[in-house]
């Protein structure tokens, strides 16, 4: 039993798709979330910048009483985890392994597509993880840099999103993948649009949901589950406007958050 908080971070609101699933799976867990809304997006930045931001984010979370960190961001998970594991003596879980396992289990024709930010796709980490589990898998990946701004600007279910997604997803339709990893935690909000293009037979692997399942098993196996909800069970921190975060957070989280959000200056950590 371990009642300390689980620390979670993302470049912004996307990681809340993970938090939503974790809240469902483990309602007794205490969660401290940091969304770096002042510096989003991470996905178009250099590896060095992503690592620097990730270290600031970790330093901030380490000021709380946490038992583990979940990087609910495809970009940081693919670019910075080895660096972070060298610095911090705490379990650090990213979204890649759980998604790769879920995709390999889901596919029937062994053809898996991966979409993510530019940084994520450039890293090749999802493909590497899939091939390590099963070398016979055929994979293809496409960076979708327009998806995060579409989601953040509330345009997930519009004609514009449909047309852009059709272009990005064409290689997967042509290849006949039966499983597609949504390798960025913002993308589940585009599931309806993606499904229209890929068809209902294609299984969409939500990196956040797959990771929430993985984290639940991890904490159970290590006997680290929480049994007591803190008075402040959920704490949210952002590096830009609290109001803007609250306005979009409910779409990602499926519930309203209000007085539990605070703004911090991430540059000082
Ligand atoms: N949610 C982040 C991810 O999973 C991406 C957004 C960004 O580019 O910052 O990669």
Structure characterization notes:
With 269 residues, the protein is an alpha/beta fold. The chain is built from 12 helices and 10 strands. Strands 4-3-1-2-9-10 form a 6-stranded parallel β-sheet, with helices on both faces. Strand 7, helix 10 and strand 8 (203-206) form a beta-alpha-beta unit. Helix 5 crosses helix 7 and helix 5 crosses helix 11. The model has no long low-confidence stretch (mean pLDDT 95). Bound molecules: D-glutamic acid (DGL). Residues 10-11, 14, 40-43, 73-75, 117, 120, 148, 184-186 line the site of D-glutamic acid. D-glutamic acid binds next to helix 3.
Task: Please give a quick description of this structure.
The chain is of the alpha/beta class.
List keywords for this structure.
269 residues; alpha/beta; four-stranded parallel beta sheet; 45% helix; binds D-glutamic acid
Q: Strands, helices and their partners?
A:
Layout: E1 5-10, H1 16-25, E2 31-35, H2 47-61, E3 66-71, H3 74-79, H4 81-87, E4 92-93, H5 96-106, E5 111-116, H6 118-123, H7 125-133, E6 138-143, H8 147-152, H9 159-175, E7 179-182, H10 191-198, E8 203-206, H11 207-221, E9 234-238, H12 242-253, E10 261-263
Helix pairs in contact: 1-11, 5-7, 5-11, 9-10
The chain binds D-glutamic acid.
């Amino acid at each position: 039993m371990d009642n300390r908080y689980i620390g979670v971070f993302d470049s912004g609101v996307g990681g809340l798709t993970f938090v939503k699933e974790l809240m469902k799976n483990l309602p007794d867990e205490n969660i401290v979330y940091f969304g770096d809304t002042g510096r989003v997006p991470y996905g178009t930045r250099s590896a060095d910048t992503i690592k620097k931001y990730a270290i600031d984010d970790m330093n901030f979370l380490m000021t709380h009483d946490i038992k583990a960190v979940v990087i609910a961001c495809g970009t940081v998970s693919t670019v910075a985890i080895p660096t972070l594991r060298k610095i911090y003596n705490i379990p650090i879980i990213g979204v890649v392994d759980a998604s790769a396992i879920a995709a390999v289990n889901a596919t029937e024709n062994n053809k898996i597509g991966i979409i993510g930010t530019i940084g994520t796709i450039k890293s090749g980490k999802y493909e590497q993880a899939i091939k390590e589990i099963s070398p016979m898998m055929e994979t293809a990946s496409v960076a979708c840099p327009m998806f995060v701004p579409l989601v953040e600007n509330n345009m997930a279910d519009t004609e514009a999103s449909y047309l852009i997604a059709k272009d990005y997803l064409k290689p997967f339709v042509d290849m006949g993948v039966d499983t597609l990893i949504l390798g960025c935690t913002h993308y589940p909000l585009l599931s309806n649009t993606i499904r229209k293009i890929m068809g209902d037979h294609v299984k969409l692997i939500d990196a956040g949901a797959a990771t929430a399942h993985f984290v639940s098993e991890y904490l159970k196996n290590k006997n680290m589950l929480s049994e007591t909800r803190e008075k402040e069970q959920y704490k949210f921190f952002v590096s830009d406007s609290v109001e803007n975060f609250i306005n979009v957070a409910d779409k990602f989280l499926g519930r309203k958050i209000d007085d539990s959000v605070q703004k911090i200056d991430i540059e000082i950590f």
